[in-house]
């Protein structure tokens, strides 16, 4: 019974060419983004910014789920409505980030292990009671000449799988996010090899832990070279490498793959999502969608700049980015304003 309900939620999250909007930055990360624009780093400004996002008109036409952070799911809009309730009323599923961050992995300099399993069963029950329908856990995998280690891949895959099993037990759809990060000078090929190994290990662990693949969403990186790599590929090369890697590693039972943006510019993230759908849709058994944070929020954050008189303009920009990504899922461009050539 529970699994049917979870499968329906997972399918709804990736339906109708919609995608997910991640606004689950931890307080330190949100403060860092505010500091870069001179925005006061207070609980009230974080709340006001999150209110701007969730009250953007027509958001539900392109966004099926929004990922919240612990502080936000406990906050209310100015009119007193809790964030989760206001999203629900719009037909947008509220989600919640439940990991407690990536910490240094003992004995493995330069590598991270994501924590948060202690007490997770109790926290998930509370979030479900507050209205969350799905959850997110992000693991971070770095590449350099000698990384990642098997220790890092296995530890993170195991944690992701234990998190996912606990989510399903609590009636929440797990979004499983193993992110191979873009820092460094590695090639596209190396990112493909590492991501392939990571995803194979993650799905092995998910199966070992008894996670229902029909009732989860995978949130991976696109296959991209490091930011410092001198050779930057075309959109088609990224799309090909990404779809090939996923076809080799992700079981067809998974309903959807929702990419993170990982620090790509908003325009490039949309253009690559579009190329992935054009090149991959006919071959892919899963929906290929987005779960972006920076690539949807960043231009709106800059327009808002902490000033409430800029709310309308910022909301229009947020909606524009969301619509660009919805159009990308359909293999289209939203407007002529998109400048990235294909
Ligand atoms: P970005 O799209 O900014 O990479 O964030 C996605 C996310 O949710 C990271 O956990």
From TrEMBL:
EC number: 4.1.2.13
Family matches, as InterPro entries: Aldolase_TIM (IPR013785), FBA_I (IPR000741)
Pfam family, one: Glycolytic
GO molecular function, one term: fructose-bisphosphate aldolase activity
Swiss-Prot/TrEMBL catalytic activity: beta-D-fructose 1,6-bisphosphate = D-glyceraldehyde 3-phosphate + dihydroxyacetone phosphate
Protein origin, superkingdom: Bacteria
GO biological process per UniProt: glycolytic process
Pathway: Carbohydrate degradation; glycolysis; D-glyceraldehyde 3-phosphate and glycerone phosphate from D-glucose: step 4/4
Protein family: Belongs to the class I fructose-bisphosphate aldolase family.
Protein name listed in UniProt: Probable fructose-bisphosphate aldolase class 1
Organism: Rhodopirellula baltica WH47
């Amino acid at each position: 019974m529970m699994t049917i309900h979870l499968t329906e939620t997972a399918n709804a999250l990736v339906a109708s060419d919609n995608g997910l909007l991640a606004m689950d930055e931890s307080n330190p990360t949100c403060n860092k983004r505010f500091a870069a624009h001179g925005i006061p780093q207070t609980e009230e400004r974080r709340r006001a910014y999150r209110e701007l996002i969730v009250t953007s008109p027509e958001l539900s036409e392109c966004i099926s789920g929004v990922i919240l952070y612990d502080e936000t799911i406990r906050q209310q809009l100015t009119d007193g409505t809790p964030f989760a309730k206001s999203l629900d009323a719009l037909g947008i599923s509220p989600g919640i980030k439940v990991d407690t961050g990536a910490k240094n992995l003992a004995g493995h300099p330069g590598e991270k292990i994501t924590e948060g399993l202690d007490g997770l069963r109790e926290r998930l029950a509370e979030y479900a009671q507050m209205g969350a329908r799905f959850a997110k856990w992000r693991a971070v995998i770095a590449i350099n000449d000698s990384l990642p280690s098997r220790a890092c891949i296995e530890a993170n895959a195991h944690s992701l799988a234990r998190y996912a099993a606990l989510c399903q037990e609590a009636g929440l759809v797990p979004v499983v996010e193993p992110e191979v990060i873009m820092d460094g000078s590695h090639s596209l090929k190396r990112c493909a090899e590492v991501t392939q190994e990571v995803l194979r290990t993650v799905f092995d662990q998910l199966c070992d832990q008894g996670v229902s693949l029909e009732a989860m969403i995978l949130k991976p990186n696109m296959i991209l070279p490091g930011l410092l790599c001198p050779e930057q590929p075309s959109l088609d090369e990224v799309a090909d490498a990404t779809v090939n890697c996923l076809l080799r590693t992700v079981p067809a039972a998974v309903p959807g793959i929702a990419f993170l943006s990982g620090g790509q510019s908003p325009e490039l993230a949309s253009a690559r999502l579009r190329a992935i759908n054009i090149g991959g849709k006919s071959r892919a058994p899963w929906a290929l969608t987005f779960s972006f944070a920076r690539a949807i929020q960043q231009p709106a954050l800059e327009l808002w700049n902490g000033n409430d008189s800029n709310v309308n303009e910022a909301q229009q920009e947020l909606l524009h980015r969301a619509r660009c990504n919805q159009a990308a899922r359909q293999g289209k461009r939203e407007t002529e304003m998109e400048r990235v050539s294909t």
